[in-house]
Fold:
Amino acid sequence: KIRGERLWDSLMETAQIGGTPDGGIRRLTLSEEDARVRAWFQAAVAAAGMTLSHDLFGNMFAVRPGKNNALPPIAMGSHLDTQPTGGKFDGVLGVLAGLEVIRTLNDAGLETEAPLMVVNWTNEEGSRFSPAMLGSGGFAGVYSVDQVNGRRDSEGISFGDALEAIGWRGDLPPKGQPIGAMFELHIEQGPILEAEGKDIGIVTGVQGLRWYEAVFEGRAAHTGSTPMALRKNALLPAADLIRAVDAIAHAHAPDAVATVGHVSVSPNSNNVIPGEVRLTVDMRHPKDAVLAAMDAELHSAFARILAGSGVSGGLTPVSDVAAVAFDPDCIRAVRDAAERSGLSAREIVSGAGHDAVHIARLAPTTMIFVPSAGGLSHNPAESTAFEECAAGAQVLLDAVLGYDRR
Amino acid sequence: KIRGERLWDSLMETAQIGGTPDGGIRRLTLSEEDARVRAWFQAAVAAAGMTLSHDLFGNMFAVRPGKNNALPPIAMGSHLDTQPTGGKFDGVLGVLAGLEVIRTLNDAGLETEAPLMVVNWTNEEGSRFSPAMLGSGGFAGVYSVDQVNGRRDSEGISFGDALEAIGWRGDLPPKGQPIGAMFELHIEQGPILEAEGKDIGIVTGVQGLRWYEAVFEGRAAHTGSTPMALRKNALLPAADLIRAVDAIAHAHAPDAVATVGHVSVSPNSNNVIPGEVRLTVDMRHPKDAVLAAMDAELHSAFARILAGSGVSGGLTPVSDVAAVAFDPDCIRAVRDAAERSGLSAREIVSGAGHDAVHIARLAPTTMIFVPSAGGLSHNPAESTAFEECAAGAQVLLDAVLGYDRR
Ligand SMILES: NC(=O)NCCC(=O)O
Ligand SMILES: NC(=O)NCCC(=O)O
Structure:
C-alpha cells in the first residue's frame, strides 16, 4: 500500500520549484526551474536505489531492476514541466506517483519480474516550444532529432540550445531505452469524474489533436493619420479567425473543441495599426474523420478571411496527432486494480494530449485519471485532493504489479 | 538660410541611437536609448551656447537669449522618443530643426527680440507609458504630477521611477518655464501633402483623440479537456470588440478613425483558453461632437459584447484630448514664411496628436508639416526627403523670425 502523505509531501516540495504566489507553478520546459526540478528528481531516484539515464531530448529514465532484467522495463511517468501559469498536479503527479510506487516496493522489499522505470518526458506542455509532447514524440520517432532541436521559443531560442544550456542532453538515441509497457497516471483536467462522483478514470484512449500557426501581415502605420480606406490592419482578419475557430467547434458539438490560445501583435503599440499578428489554433475531436473535416473547414475559413482582408498571410500545420486507442491488456490491469481497491471507476477518453499517446506506438500503454476539481487545469487553481492522488497512485501500483505478474 | 546638410547629418547621427537594422529607431521614452539621445542633445545645445533646464517630467528646455530677455521665449521643438518600431523623422525632425534654426542664427550673428527656445518633450509617443503627449500634458497642467508619475509600462515600472533611473527629473514645476509662442515642425504622418504635391502643410488644428483600455476576464483552462459549453474564453469578446471598433469608424466615414493597436492575452499559451485579454482603443475625429457620438457607440458596443460573452470586464477611458484650433497669428507667420520661400503649401488638420495640442492651452501655438512618403509613419520605413526636411526647417526659421518681428 502506497503512503499517501509521502506522495503529497513530494508534490508540495517540488511545487516550490517555480511556485507562484497564487499557488500555481511556472516551470517552463528547459528553464532554470526545470533544471532545478530535474536535480530534485535525480537525487530522489538515486536515494531510491535507481539507475538514471537520459536521451538526446533530455527525457529522463530511472530504472529499478527486476528478477529478470532481460525483460524491458514497465514504465510509469509523465512530465515535470508546467504551463506558464500552471497548477501543481498536471504531469507532476504521474512522475511522483511512479516514484512513490518504487519507494513502496523498496519498503516492502518486493521485487518485480520485469524491471520498473520512472520517466520524466521533456516539454510535454508545448507552451515554450510547440508542439506539445515533443520529448516523447522525439523518443518515439514521430519527430526527427533535427525537428525537435530546431523548434524555437518566442524569443528565438532553439530547443537544442536550451537543452544544452541546462546540461541535460544525453546520448541515448530515439527508442534507445526499451519499454515493456507504460502506465501514466494523470489528472483528468476535465469535469467528468467529478460530475459523476467517480474516483478513477480508466482511460481507453485520447482524442485527436491538430495544431496550426496562422500569420497575417498588414502594414504598421499611424492610427491617427492613416485614413480607414488606406489601412492594412492585420488584427481584423485575426479577430475573424478567432471567431471562425470557435464556430468550427460549435458546428461539431458537443465533442469538438477548437481554440486560439496564443496571439502576438506587432508592434503592439496603442497608436500603431497592427502590422503583423500571429495566432495559434488548437482543434481536437475523438474521431479522426471529424477532425479531418474540421481541418478542411479551418483551411477554407482562413482562405475566405484572407481573401476579404487586403492583407497577406499563411496557415501552417504544426502538429497532427491522430486519436489513439490504448492497449486492452493494460486497460484491464487498471480496471482490475481499481476494483481490487474498492474504488469507483468509469471508462473515459482523454481530452488532453499526453506522452502516453506517442509511447503507445512503441509499447502497450494506458493511463489512469483522477478527478480535477471543477474540471479546471492549466490554471494555478488546478486542484486534486490528497485522497484522490493517493487513490491514483495505489491503482498505479496495483496495475503495474498486475501487469507484471501476467 | 538654414543648412540642410547639417540638419540631415544630425538626423542621421541621432538615428544611430536606438537604430534598428531595418533603418528605423527603437528609442522608447525614458529608456537607456532615450538617456543617450538626451545626452547628445545636451551637448549639442551647450555647443550652440544655449542654457538648458529641465522640469519635473524630464521635459528639456534649451534657451538662446534675445535682445529683450523679459519676453517669454518663442519655442520650437517636438520629441526625441520613438515608437517601438518607429521611423527616423517622427518627433526628431522638430527638435533638430529647432537646433538648426539656432545654429543658423549663430552663424549669421543674428539676435532676436525675444529669447528662442528648443524643447524636447518627454514621452510624446505614449507607447511605453500611455497616454501620448504625457510630458507636455503634465507641463500644461492637463495631468497632475502624481498622475504622470504613476503611469506604468507593461512591466509595471512607473513613469516616475523610470525618469529617476535615467537621471532627468528636474525641479521646474508645471508651467514653470515661460513660453511666448510655440512652433512645432513635424512630418505629416499621412498621405495628403504627397498626394497633392505640396511642400508644406500649414496646420490649422489637430483632431480630437480618445484612448481607452478594455479588459475581459474569463477563466484559463485546458483547450483539450474543457468542453465548449463550460468555457469562459476572454478572447472571443475581445475579437468582437476589435471588429466593433473598426465598424464605429466606418459608420462615421470618411473622417473618423478607430483602432485597437495593443492586445495582451494571458497566459498566452497554445493550449490554454485565454483567461484575460487587455486591449487599447484609439478613436479620433476632427469634430468633438462626432467623437462624443463615437464614444457613446463604443460604450454601448462594449456593454452589448460583454453581456453576451459570459465573461466579466471593463472599459476605462485613458485620455480625452479635444480637437484644437491653432493660433491665427502663428498660422499667418507660417503661411507668410512658406510664401516667402516660394514653397507650395496648403492648410491641413493633423490626424496625429502632438505636444503642440497641450501647449496651445498656454501660448499661441501652431505647427508646420512636411510630407511623409506613402503617408507612412510609426513604421521603420517612414521617409521624408532631404529637401523636404530642409524646406520645413527654413519655414520654421522664417516663421519664428516673422513672429518675433511682429
Ligand atoms: N496533459 C496536457 O495538458 N498536455 C498538454 C498537451 C495538450 O495540450 O493536450
Ligand atoms: N505624432 C505622433 O505620432 N504622436 C503620437 C500620439 C498620437 O498617437 O497621435
In short: The longest strand of chain A covers residues 208-217. The first helix of chain A runs from residue 4 to 14. The mean pLDDT of chain A is 98. The CA atoms of residues 329 and 370 of chain A lie 20 Å apart.
